[in-house]
Design a protein that fits this description.
By secondary structure, this protein is α+β, with helices and mostly antiparallel strands. It has a domain at 6-93: Ribosomal protein S6/Translation elongation factor EF1B (Alpha-Beta Plaits, 2-Layer Sandwich), CATH 3.30.70. The chain is built from four helices and five strands, in the order βαβββαβαα. It has helices at residues 18-30, 67-78, 94-106, 120-138, and strands at residues 6-15, 34-38, 42-50, 53-66, 83-90. β3 and β4 (53-66) form a beta hairpin.
Length: 139
């Protein structure tokens, strides 16, 4: 079994500095994995302090890799003091998301057909007739 099965993984992370965020990309390139999508890293305000920090750099990277490489990445990031938090998951299948999008796109909006257009005089006559019916019903 020399050929390993590759899956699509996604890592989301909080880094103490931009260098820490770049370090994840460096680790992935050394492991020879195929990066599919890498989000721009942005400084965010944390909801609660992590290691006495109120801000961190957030980013995510989607990549193709074997399970062995994903475990190795996990071990390397545990030892990295510049990475505050991270989560590695297998990406959900893209077919599932496209199925939901197509179902939403295929649902048609109901259109209401407009009745015959009335002129202002005809409309006022209709309103007067309705008002007369309401006043006669009250008596």
């Amino acid at each position: 079994m020399s050929e390993e099965i590759k899956k699509e993984y996604e890592i989301s992370f909080l880094a103490a500095s931009e260098d820490g965020a770049r370090h994840i990309g460096d680790i992935l390139s050394k492991m020879d994995v195929a990066v599919i999508v890498a989000s721009p890293v942005s400084l965010i305000q944390l909801a609660y302090p992590i290691l006495k920090r109120n801000q961190a750099y957030f980013g995510y990277i989607r990549f193709d890799s074997s399970a062995v490489n994903a475990v190795e990445l996990d071990k390397k990031l545990r030892l990295d003091a510049d990475i505050l938090r991270y989560l590695i998951i297998t990406s959900p299948p893209t077919q599932r998301t496209s199925k939901y999008k197509s179902a939403a796109a295929s649902s048609k909006k109901k259109t209401v057909k407009a009745g015959p257009q009335l002129s202002n005089e005809a409309l006022q006559a209709e309103i007067a007739a309705l008002q007369n019916n309401n006043t006669t019903d009250k008596i």
